[in-house]
Amino acid sequence: MPAEWEEHEATWLGWPHNLSDWPGRFAPIPWVYGEIVRKLAEAERVRILVPSRAHEGKARRLLERVGAALERVEFFRIPNDRGWTRDFGPICVRREHPKPEVAVARFRFNGWAKYPNHRLDAKIPSAVAADLKLPLTQVRCNEKPVVLEGGAIEINGSGTLITTEECLLDAETQVRNPGFSKKDYESVFSEFLGIRNVIWLGAGIDGDDTHGHVDDICRFVNRTTVVACVEENRSDINHKRLRANLERLKHARLEDNSKLQVVPIPMPGRIDFEDLRLPASYVNFLITNGCVLVPTFNDPNDYKALGILSELFKGREVIGIHAVDLIWGLGTLHCLSHEIPA
User: Is 335 a catalytic site residue?
Assistant: First the structure.
């Protein structure tokens, strides 16, 4: 599985249409998507899932108004439930021999083991593989299909993968693969994603509807370096969780047994809406061929996070995208997108 900073053929988005994803606050969401597409299309091709011709028409009109380069945007009319493309979209692998080839590793999607409206989303990888004429491999272990979301794993493209025990090993809450052990997952990652080394973190952040996705707490920025979230407020539940993960990362090794380089990055201040804490995080950024799009939250730490990432992504422009409206849907830029490698 290639790293996200390697060249993309395109990035997928699912155009927003499910009002329940942002209850009571849907109106600004298509405009935020418009800004995301505008920036993406400056760097690479954008492929957008839409459930119907009518939705495509609305999206085209909005993208014209925001000045997006529509000649670099393709629409695919494929019925879908929701817009969280990172988790149900095609996880791609690549090989160089006997000839360069990209294929889809077909994991199963079950709505984060929580939501019933996932059956159309679960068909997306197969539909995309058929439309793009990509080989498709069904991922199975002990004769059973394996459930995995894209946001549950973070990889460096050279054989190391990071994930969390909370997401993949919890036996009581949002159970993806009942009875699976670390050994089972590591075997699957090895066989289907080319992974030789797995770094297991503990818990994700408070308010995370996915029950521990790694793309809200730790991300690779190059083969040997990660940014890891830290919470300075000792009274915040995330302080202890993220400190424990930071300690694991400081002692972690890469696939060649070299030391992992760890750069702390702050969390934004707590964001609540009504009685719900929202999983705001700067590491839910999206790497494109030409830039890095980073969620911002009208918070003093926005500037610190953008500065840290600008230093790490020397060859790419780091751009903040206002995500206070997006996060009401319990995810931001990385959750909404999925790259197809060149």
Answer: yes
Which residue bears the tokens 């995080």? 281
Q: Dihedral (C-alpha) 52, 82, 49, 56: value to the nearest 10 degrees?
A: 40
Identify the burial level of 278 via C-beta atoms within 10 angstroms of its C-beta, where 0-12 means exposed, 13-18 middle and 19 or more buried: buried
Angle, vertex CA 295, rays to CA 291 and CA 297, nearest 5: 145
**298: its two tokens:** 């009208």
In sequence order, the β-bridge partners of residue 14 are: 49
Residue range 26-55, pLDDT digits in tens: 999 999 999 999 999 999 999 999 999 999
Asked whether the beta carbons of 176 and 113 are under 8 A apart, the reply is: yes
What the chain holds in terms of domains, given with CATH numbers, is 8-341 (3.75.10.10)
Q: Which of 91, 7, 5 is nearest to 309 (CA)?
A: 5
Residue 19 structure tokens = 């009002």
Question: CA-to-CA distance for 83 and 93, rounded, in angstroms?
Answer: 22
Q: Render pLDDT for 263-284 as a digit per residue (tens, 0 to 9).
A: 999 999 999 988 899 999 999 9
Please tell me the distance from the alpha carbon of residue 322 to that of residue 293, in angstroms, as a whole number.
Answer: 10
Spot the catalytic one: 218, 229, 291, 335.
Answer: 335
Per the listing, tokens 């959750």 go with 335
Phi, psi of 130 (to 5 degrees): -65, -45
Strands 291-296 and 317-322: parallel
CA–CA dist 110, 213 (Å, integer): 15
The dihedrals phi and psi of 22, each to the nearest 5 degrees, come to: -130, 65
Find all residues with CB under 8 Å of 126, minimum gap 6, and list them: 104, 106, 136
Q: Are 201 and 265 in contact (CB under 8 A)?
A: no
Closest CA to 331 of 207, 218, 230, 231: 207
- pTM of the predicted model, to two decimals? 0.97
